[in-house]
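User:
Hi there, any thoughts?
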Amino acid sequence: MALYVRTLTGEDQRRLEGLARSAMDGELSKRARIVLLSARRQRVHEISAAVELHPINVRKWIHRFNRLGIEGLYPRRSPGRPRLFDEDQREAIVALATSEPDALGLDFEVWSLQRLRSQLIRRGVMPEISAETIRQELLRGGLVFEGRRWVRQNGMD
């Protein structure tokens, strides 16, 4: 069964033609052309060849238009990966790494990433964190591992 966009209103037709001619956003222009070609009853594979886009993507934009109208043709920005932790937690990682373990009543003198991980979880700073994430955050915080401890790069602080 062939897939086509729903019947266009006069307003849809005018807006789509304007978007299709627009050089401001090439992707949006291409999506508007997909809808206009589909409204002229061109098949997905013909549209795909005309706009140089895979048929799966042509179908996606036809479905999005049918469901959401012209607004569905605008890009939706992905929020990306959720943040693992907040700024207070970042500061707590750095503060713990730059503290002296024995001053905190711990029975070791040097922090390892695994010991930092264990203490951050035990102290309720965060429910879970990997040693690698701790290492990355310490580097991002301007720390380097020097000798047997984490210190501010270039001797700062």
Observations:
- The two ends are 69 Å apart (CA to CA).
- The chain is about 50% helix and 5% strand.
- The domain at 87-155 is CATH 1.10.10 (Arc Repressor Mutant, subunit A).
